[in-house]
Amino acid sequence: MDARQLEYFLAIVEHGGFSKAAAVLHVAQPSLSQAMANLEADLGVSLFHRMGRGVVLSEAGRELLEPSRRVLRDLIAVRDRAASLSGLHGGTVEVAAMPSPGIEPLTGLIHRFTELHPSVTVSSRAAFTPEGVVDLVRSGACELGLLGAERPFAASGIDVLPVEEQPFVVVAGPGAGLEDGATLRPEDLGGRKLIASRGGSLMRTIVDDVMAHTEGTDIVAVVDHRTSVLPLVLTGVGMAVLPASWTRLARRCGAAVASIEPTAHLHVAMISLPAHLTPGARAFLDLTRSYARQRAAHGG
User: Fold this and answer.
1) Is the peptide bond before 105 cis (omega within 30 degrees of 0)?
2) Rounded to the nearest 5°, which phi and psi values hold at 193?
3) Which tens digits make up the pLDDT trace of 89-132?
4) Distance between alpha carbon 97 and the CA centroid of its chain, in Å?
5) How many angstroms separate the most distant Cα atoms in the chain?
6) Chain Cα centroid distance, residue 120
7) Does residue 85 have a pLDDT over 70?
8) Which of 22, 129, 189, 198 gets the most CB atoms within 10 Å of its CB?
9) Cα dist from 12 to 17, 122, 228, whole Å
10) Exposed, middle or buried by CB within 10 Å (0-12, 13-18, 19+), for 125?
11) Rg (CA), the chain
Protein backbone atom coordinates (compact mmCIF):
# COMPACT_ATOMS: atom_id res chain seq x y z
CA MET A 1 0.00 0.00 0.00
CA ASP A 2 1.25 3.52 -0.77
CA ALA A 3 -0.06 7.05 -0.46
CA ARG A 4 -0.84 7.23 -4.19
CA GLN A 5 -3.26 4.29 -3.89
CA LEU A 6 -5.03 5.95 -0.96
CA GLU A 7 -5.25 9.21 -2.89
CA TYR A 8 -6.83 7.37 -5.82
CA PHE A 9 -9.24 5.55 -3.50
CA LEU A 10 -10.44 8.80 -1.93
CA ALA A 11 -10.76 10.49 -5.33
CA ILE A 12 -13.04 7.69 -6.56
CA VAL A 13 -15.22 8.13 -3.47
CA GLU A 14 -15.29 11.94 -3.63
CA HIS A 15 -16.07 12.09 -7.37
CA GLY A 16 -18.47 9.16 -7.53
CA GLY A 17 -16.64 6.82 -9.88
CA PHE A 18 -13.49 5.82 -11.72
CA SER A 19 -13.91 7.93 -14.86
CA LYS A 20 -14.47 11.25 -13.03
CA ALA A 21 -11.67 10.49 -10.57
CA ALA A 22 -9.28 9.67 -13.42
CA ALA A 23 -10.11 12.99 -15.11
CA VAL A 24 -9.55 14.98 -11.91
CA LEU A 25 -6.31 13.15 -11.13
CA HIS A 26 -5.09 13.42 -14.75
CA VAL A 27 -4.36 9.70 -14.98
CA ALA A 28 -5.57 7.09 -17.44
CA GLN A 29 -8.60 5.16 -16.19
CA PRO A 30 -6.91 1.76 -16.77
CA SER A 31 -4.02 2.90 -14.55
CA LEU A 32 -6.47 3.98 -11.87
CA SER A 33 -8.35 0.68 -12.08
CA GLN A 34 -5.10 -1.28 -11.84
CA ALA A 35 -4.01 0.71 -8.79
CA MET A 36 -7.29 -0.11 -7.06
CA ALA A 37 -7.03 -3.76 -8.02
CA ASN A 38 -3.54 -3.87 -6.52
CA LEU A 39 -4.77 -2.17 -3.34
CA GLU A 40 -7.67 -4.63 -3.00
CA ALA A 41 -5.27 -7.52 -3.55
CA ASP A 42 -2.88 -6.19 -0.87
CA LEU A 43 -5.75 -5.78 1.61
CA GLY A 44 -7.53 -8.99 0.67
CA VAL A 45 -10.94 -7.26 0.45
CA SER A 46 -13.10 -5.59 -2.18
CA LEU A 47 -13.41 -1.84 -1.63
CA PHE A 48 -16.16 -1.24 -4.19
CA HIS A 49 -19.19 -3.03 -5.57
CA ARG A 50 -19.25 -2.59 -9.36
CA MET A 51 -22.77 -1.77 -10.53
CA GLY A 52 -22.94 -1.22 -14.28
CA ARG A 53 -20.80 1.81 -14.99
CA GLY A 54 -20.89 2.98 -11.39
CA VAL A 55 -19.40 1.85 -8.10
CA VAL A 56 -20.66 1.74 -4.53
CA LEU A 57 -18.45 1.51 -1.46
CA SER A 58 -18.36 -1.91 0.17
CA GLU A 59 -18.45 -2.29 3.94
CA ALA A 60 -14.66 -2.71 3.90
CA GLY A 61 -14.38 0.46 1.79
CA ARG A 62 -16.43 2.44 4.29
CA GLU A 63 -14.19 1.21 7.10
CA LEU A 64 -11.09 2.30 5.19
CA LEU A 65 -12.43 5.77 4.34
CA GLU A 66 -11.66 7.61 7.58
CA PRO A 67 -8.21 6.00 8.20
CA SER A 68 -7.23 6.84 4.61
CA ARG A 69 -8.08 10.49 5.09
CA ARG A 70 -6.07 10.56 8.30
CA VAL A 71 -3.03 8.90 6.72
CA LEU A 72 -2.97 11.36 3.85
CA ARG A 73 -3.49 14.28 6.19
CA ASP A 74 -0.59 13.10 8.34
CA LEU A 75 1.61 12.91 5.26
CA ILE A 76 0.58 16.44 4.34
CA ALA A 77 1.37 17.52 7.90
CA VAL A 78 4.88 16.06 7.60
CA ARG A 79 5.45 17.94 4.35
CA ASP A 80 3.96 21.15 5.76
CA ARG A 81 5.97 20.79 8.97
CA ALA A 82 9.17 20.70 6.95
CA ALA A 83 8.05 23.78 5.05
CA SER A 84 7.10 25.53 8.28
CA LEU A 85 10.72 25.49 9.43
CA SER A 86 11.21 28.44 7.11
CA GLY A 87 7.71 29.83 7.50
CA LEU A 88 4.18 28.81 6.46
CA HIS A 89 4.23 28.34 2.70
CA GLY A 90 1.47 26.80 0.61
CA GLY A 91 -1.10 24.21 1.55
CA THR A 92 -4.82 24.36 2.29
CA VAL A 93 -6.76 24.82 5.53
CA GLU A 94 -10.12 23.03 5.38
CA VAL A 95 -12.86 24.51 7.58
CA ALA A 96 -16.44 23.27 7.88
CA ALA A 97 -18.82 26.13 8.70
CA MET A 98 -22.51 26.70 9.37
CA PRO A 99 -24.20 29.59 7.50
CA SER A 100 -24.33 32.33 10.13
CA PRO A 101 -20.86 31.76 11.65
CA GLY A 102 -19.76 31.45 8.02
CA ILE A 103 -20.66 35.13 7.59
CA GLU A 104 -18.90 36.21 10.76
CA PRO A 105 -16.52 35.45 12.34
CA LEU A 106 -15.33 33.30 9.40
CA THR A 107 -15.11 36.17 6.92
CA GLY A 108 -12.99 38.25 9.27
CA LEU A 109 -10.81 35.29 10.20
CA ILE A 110 -10.14 34.39 6.57
CA HIS A 111 -9.39 38.03 5.77
CA ARG A 112 -6.80 38.28 8.54
CA PHE A 113 -5.36 34.81 7.89
CA THR A 114 -4.79 35.47 4.20
CA GLU A 115 -3.04 38.73 5.10
CA LEU A 116 -0.67 36.83 7.40
CA HIS A 117 -0.28 33.77 5.15
CA PRO A 118 -1.02 34.81 1.55
CA SER A 119 0.31 31.55 0.06
CA VAL A 120 -2.11 29.36 2.06
CA THR A 121 -5.60 28.63 0.71
CA VAL A 122 -8.61 28.47 3.03
CA SER A 123 -11.29 26.03 1.83
CA SER A 124 -14.70 26.27 3.51
CA ARG A 125 -17.24 23.43 3.33
CA ALA A 126 -20.89 23.98 4.16
CA ALA A 127 -22.69 22.25 7.02
CA PHE A 128 -26.13 23.22 8.28
CA THR A 129 -26.17 21.77 11.80
CA PRO A 130 -23.62 21.37 14.61
CA GLU A 131 -23.83 17.61 14.02
CA GLY A 132 -22.97 18.15 10.37
CA VAL A 133 -19.87 20.13 11.33
CA VAL A 134 -18.81 17.43 13.78
CA ASP A 135 -19.25 14.73 11.13
CA LEU A 136 -16.97 16.56 8.68
CA VAL A 137 -14.30 16.99 11.35
CA ARG A 138 -14.54 13.45 12.72
CA SER A 139 -14.34 11.95 9.23
CA GLY A 140 -11.19 13.89 8.43
CA ALA A 141 -12.84 15.78 5.55
CA CYS A 142 -12.07 19.03 7.43
CA GLU A 143 -9.54 19.74 10.16
CA LEU A 144 -11.52 22.60 11.71
CA GLY A 145 -15.21 23.29 12.16
CA LEU A 146 -17.02 26.53 12.97
CA LEU A 147 -20.52 26.06 14.39
CA GLY A 148 -23.30 27.90 16.17
CA ALA A 149 -25.49 26.25 18.81
CA GLU A 150 -28.31 27.16 21.16
CA ARG A 151 -26.07 26.54 24.19
CA PRO A 152 -22.32 26.11 24.83
CA PHE A 153 -21.22 23.21 22.66
CA ALA A 154 -19.58 19.98 23.82
CA ALA A 155 -18.94 16.61 22.14
CA SER A 156 -16.91 13.60 23.21
CA GLY A 157 -13.48 13.32 21.64
CA ILE A 158 -13.67 16.85 20.22
CA ASP A 159 -11.63 19.90 21.24
CA VAL A 160 -13.96 22.91 21.53
CA LEU A 161 -12.81 26.54 21.48
CA PRO A 162 -15.67 28.89 22.48
CA VAL A 163 -15.39 31.90 20.17
CA GLU A 164 -18.24 34.31 20.88
CA GLU A 165 -21.93 34.69 21.65
CA GLN A 166 -24.04 36.37 18.98
CA PRO A 167 -27.35 37.95 20.05
CA PHE A 168 -30.24 37.83 17.61
CA VAL A 169 -31.33 41.00 15.82
CA VAL A 170 -34.19 42.12 13.58
CA VAL A 171 -33.26 43.01 10.01
CA ALA A 172 -35.59 45.04 7.77
CA GLY A 173 -35.29 46.39 4.25
CA PRO A 174 -35.37 50.06 3.23
CA GLY A 175 -38.77 51.62 3.72
CA ALA A 176 -39.94 49.05 6.25
CA GLY A 177 -40.21 51.67 8.98
CA LEU A 178 -37.55 50.16 11.26
CA GLU A 179 -35.10 52.59 12.83
CA ASP A 180 -31.53 51.36 12.49
CA GLY A 181 -29.93 50.84 15.89
CA ALA A 182 -33.25 50.77 17.75
CA THR A 183 -34.01 48.32 20.54
CA LEU A 184 -37.21 46.32 20.22
CA ARG A 185 -39.19 44.03 22.42
CA PRO A 186 -40.73 40.94 20.81
CA GLU A 187 -44.22 42.47 21.04
CA ASP A 188 -43.02 45.40 18.89
CA LEU A 189 -43.06 43.00 15.94
CA GLY A 190 -46.83 42.61 16.14
CA GLY A 191 -48.47 43.02 12.75
CA ARG A 192 -45.21 42.54 10.84
CA LYS A 193 -44.48 40.09 8.04
CA LEU A 194 -41.61 37.78 8.93
CA ILE A 195 -39.24 35.54 6.99
CA ALA A 196 -38.34 32.40 8.93
CA SER A 197 -36.28 29.25 8.77
CA ARG A 198 -37.87 25.83 9.16
CA GLY A 199 -38.83 24.42 12.54
CA GLY A 200 -36.10 23.15 14.81
CA SER A 201 -33.66 26.06 14.49
CA LEU A 202 -33.07 28.66 17.18
CA MET A 203 -34.02 31.37 14.70
CA ARG A 204 -37.41 29.72 14.16
CA THR A 205 -37.93 29.30 17.91
CA ILE A 206 -37.59 33.07 18.37
CA VAL A 207 -40.03 33.76 15.51
CA ASP A 208 -42.53 31.25 16.90
CA ASP A 209 -42.30 32.95 20.29
CA VAL A 210 -43.02 36.32 18.67
CA MET A 211 -46.00 34.80 16.84
CA ALA A 212 -47.35 33.39 20.11
CA HIS A 213 -47.26 36.75 21.90
CA THR A 214 -48.40 39.14 19.17
CA GLU A 215 -51.41 39.63 16.93
CA GLY A 216 -51.43 40.11 13.18
CA THR A 217 -47.88 38.79 12.73
CA ASP A 218 -47.50 36.49 9.72
CA ILE A 219 -44.73 34.25 8.41
CA VAL A 220 -44.72 35.07 4.71
CA ALA A 221 -41.72 32.94 3.64
CA VAL A 222 -39.98 29.87 5.04
CA VAL A 223 -36.50 29.14 3.69
CA ASP A 224 -33.95 26.38 4.19
CA HIS A 225 -30.93 28.38 3.06
CA ARG A 226 -29.98 31.29 5.31
CA THR A 227 -28.29 32.97 2.35
CA SER A 228 -31.79 33.51 0.90
CA VAL A 229 -33.00 35.48 3.92
CA LEU A 230 -31.20 38.81 3.40
CA PRO A 231 -32.12 39.10 -0.32
CA LEU A 232 -35.77 38.50 0.59
CA VAL A 233 -35.55 41.19 3.28
CA LEU A 234 -33.97 43.67 0.87
CA THR A 235 -36.72 43.12 -1.71
CA GLY A 236 -39.36 43.97 0.89
CA VAL A 237 -40.86 40.52 1.40
CA GLY A 238 -40.62 40.89 5.16
CA MET A 239 -38.40 41.29 8.21
CA ALA A 240 -36.17 38.56 9.59
CA VAL A 241 -34.66 37.55 12.90
CA LEU A 242 -30.97 36.72 12.35
CA PRO A 243 -27.82 36.29 14.45
CA ALA A 244 -25.80 39.48 14.85
CA SER A 245 -23.17 38.07 12.47
CA TRP A 246 -25.33 39.40 9.63
CA THR A 247 -25.36 43.00 10.95
CA ARG A 248 -22.42 44.46 9.01
CA LEU A 249 -23.42 42.89 5.70
CA ALA A 250 -27.08 43.87 6.16
CA ARG A 251 -26.21 47.52 6.81
CA ARG A 252 -23.84 47.63 3.86
CA CYS A 253 -26.75 46.46 1.71
CA GLY A 254 -28.97 49.25 3.02
CA ALA A 255 -30.99 47.28 5.58
CA ALA A 256 -31.82 48.51 9.07
CA VAL A 257 -30.80 46.40 12.08
CA ALA A 258 -32.41 46.59 15.51
CA SER A 259 -31.60 44.79 18.75
CA ILE A 260 -34.14 42.58 20.56
CA GLU A 261 -34.49 42.54 24.33
CA PRO A 262 -34.63 39.98 25.73
CA THR A 263 -33.12 37.65 23.16
CA ALA A 264 -31.39 34.30 22.83
CA HIS A 265 -27.75 33.98 21.84
CA LEU A 266 -26.00 31.81 19.26
CA HIS A 267 -22.97 30.17 20.88
CA VAL A 268 -20.21 30.07 18.27
CA ALA A 269 -17.33 27.61 18.67
CA MET A 270 -14.39 26.27 16.67
CA ILE A 271 -13.86 22.53 16.93
CA SER A 272 -11.01 20.20 16.01
CA LEU A 273 -9.80 16.72 16.82
CA PRO A 274 -7.24 16.30 19.63
CA ALA A 275 -4.67 15.04 17.15
CA HIS A 276 -1.99 16.36 14.82
CA LEU A 277 -3.08 19.44 12.86
CA THR A 278 -1.30 20.68 9.78
CA PRO A 279 0.70 23.89 10.36
CA GLY A 280 -1.91 25.86 8.41
CA ALA A 281 -4.76 24.54 10.55
CA ARG A 282 -2.80 25.25 13.74
CA ALA A 283 -2.16 28.81 12.57
CA PHE A 284 -5.86 29.30 11.77
CA LEU A 285 -6.84 27.88 15.15
CA ASP A 286 -4.34 30.18 16.90
CA LEU A 287 -5.81 33.16 15.04
CA THR A 288 -9.31 32.11 16.13
CA ARG A 289 -8.12 31.78 19.72
CA SER A 290 -6.71 35.33 19.59
CA TYR A 291 -10.02 36.61 18.15
CA ALA A 292 -11.94 34.84 20.94
CA ARG A 293 -9.75 36.47 23.61
CA GLN A 294 -10.37 39.89 22.08
CA ARG A 295 -14.12 39.29 21.99
CA ALA A 296 -14.10 38.15 25.62
CA ALA A 297 -12.13 41.23 26.64
CA HIS A 298 -14.77 43.45 25.02
CA GLY A 299 -17.67 41.48 26.41
CA GLY A 300 -18.59 39.92 23.04
Assistant:
1) yes
2) -95, 130
3) 678 899 999 999 999 999 999 999 999 999 899 999 999 899 99
4) 1
5) 70
6) 18
7) no
8) 189
9) 5, 23, 33
10) middle
11) 23
